[in-house]
Description:
Largest sheet: none
Shape: globular
Amino acid sequence: MRKLIKPLVFAVALIPFSILIARVFVYPDSLGPDPAQELAKESGEWALRFLIITLALTPLRQITDQVEFVRQRRMLGLFALFYASIHFMVWVAFLLVFRWGAIVEELVKRPFITIGFAAFLILIALGVTSTKSMVRKLGRNWKRLHRLVYLAAGLAVVHLLWILRTNIGEAVFYGALVALLLAYRLQCHLRASKPTPPKV
């Protein structure tokens, strides 16, 4: 049964991508009057959702004492990068029309794009260093680097908040989840760093 969990999680994680593909090629009318904006929004939100799910796996492991949660962490983290890459490519292909030179211009002119791009770069760095060989190579620095995942999540929430502007309910919800997970992580860190009282 345990051997089936990983392929099952992989298949489920691909469902949003399959839906996006179906909406583009089978049900294009479902994308509304601005398909590019809808695709960018959906892919970006799925990147954030997978990022939050990834962050939630360690607390779930600690609360339930089920190690299976952390076994799926790397794969789900890479899915966050996968959907973030789709989000980036939708922006480049449909909104910039492959005007690569315009990327720098957009990054300078639009702070919300700068913030989103910074989150994307962090996810790339985490994805590249997620292999076992990189864990061994980086040693203690690996953990320090991968703590940036919370920064990436925070930047992604601000990016979404800036895009939605008025209808910010989703962004606030995601932001609350990230804040809750960060608070839990800080509490665990403070508890671990608290000196143990000497035995009498």
